[in-house]
What we know:
There is one protein chain. The protein is α+β, with helices and mostly antiparallel strands. The chain has a single domain (3-142), classed as 2-Layer Sandwich (Heat Shock Protein 90). Helices cover 32% and strands 26% of the residues. The protein contains three helices and five strands, in the order βααββαββ. Strand 2 (68-75) and strand 3 (79-86) form a beta hairpin.
Amino acid sequence: MLNYDRLTVKSDLTILxxxxxWLDRFYSQHLSGLSWSEYQLNCIKLAVTEGFxxxxxxxxxxxxxxTTIDIELELSDNQIEIRIWDCGKPFNPDSLPKPKxxxxxxxxxxxxxxxxxxxxxxxxxxxxxKNCLRLVKYRLQEAKSG
Length: 146
């Protein structure tokens, strides 16, 4: 089984509720009856929220709000893959220092949060001169480390 959907939105944080509504509709149409736990679905929702807000706040900083962000969802039998496309400058998330336990900073936790919420996380520049944040979450009974 393979289900796919795509959403294109402006680079505007007020659109987050629209993005999450679209995600909820995808859940109800394609995930009902499948063995995805509420915890897993909440992890996916939080990862999409973090990825979208990072694209708006960081990748598209200084760009007009009309700059688009594309979000793709692809569901197969054992996993869901999310791709969030931005038009910002290339960025190397591995250059971010890992937060130390007990250390409070004003920001910089997003990449590390995404890695905890997802089974696979890749952020790369593609040939179309867009950046792609690719998040993969496996169903619990087939969870893989990554």
